[in-house]
Every structure is written in C-alpha cells, then in structure tokens.
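seq as requested:
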Amino acid sequence: MTLPVLMSLAYKLLGTHMSYRKVDFYQDFENISHSQVLELFSHSNDINEPDATGDSPLLYACKSKDIELILFLLGKGADPNFVSASGMAPLHVTINEVELNEVFALSAANALVHAGADIELRAFLLKTPFLLACCRNSKAMIEFLVMSGCDTNAVTFDIGDSLNGLQLASISGVSADIKSYIKTLV
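struct tokens:
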C-alpha cells in the first residue's frame, strides 16, 4: 500500500476527506491515537517512503520518542540508515535525545544498531554517531557506541578545521568527567 492510500485510511479513521498532497507525519498524525498509527503503518508496503518534510516513518518514531513504534517499524523492515533531506538519521536523532531521556535514547540506539544501523554513518553535520555523542552529556551513550565497535578516532571538519571527539566535547560544553573519558578513547 502506498503512502497516499495509507493516508486515505488515516483520513477515514479521522472522519475527514483526503486532499491529494504529500503526507506530513507530525501534522497528520497529531490527532490520532498511537494504536491507529500502528494500524496505519501495518498496512504500508513501503515503510521507508518519506513524508512531505523528508522524514521516514522511522525518523518520525525516533523524533516522537516512541520505542514501540521504532521496534514495530524495524520489524517491518524500516531502513535504520535512512538520511532525511535535512541530514538526520535515526541513530543521530536518538543521540540528540540522550540528554533529555537517556533511557529512551539508549533503548532506541540499541534497537537501531541491532537492526543494522551503521555506527559510522555520517549524517547530521557530517558527524558519525560517536562524534555526535561526544557533544552530548551521556557517558552511557558513548560507552554503548564504543562497545558496538565505533571508530573513536573519527574526525569531522567544522569551523574550517579537523575536529575529533575530544575537541567537539570541549566546544560543546560537556562535563569534565565525560571529557576525561573521551580523552582515554581518542
């Protein structure tokens, strides 16, 4: 089932009429229940088709911090390495959430890595997940990525210079404890 057909189901659930336009998961799913969202995606043939904002259903689930939907979509074959037009990938989105909800972020990262997420994928600002995690105050996320086999010697180019994890941590204002830990890795 294609996304337009899927959305016609959504509009039937909502009791409104479908106008032909590209779907926006955030706007269109705002007023339907979690179980209805799961029902809609269970009928989809292309679980990776992006919406009008360029996000895949899996990116939507990661941004919505919905671990049940993440697991459901991964089980249906969602691509854990999808990169949106804005440069976001599911693992990068979960790492960005780690300071607000570490339990969710670690659970989602674990599910994504076990489903084949590339721990060296350069997405948001051309950072690997490790480099992005070095900019967040979560030693647990960095430890998870290291245990998953990430390259701790990765660098990115920012501000016209090559930056490693420790340099990114220093300019991002992470805690001294985390910077000390990163220093043992790079």
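DSSP finds eleven helices and two strands in the chain.
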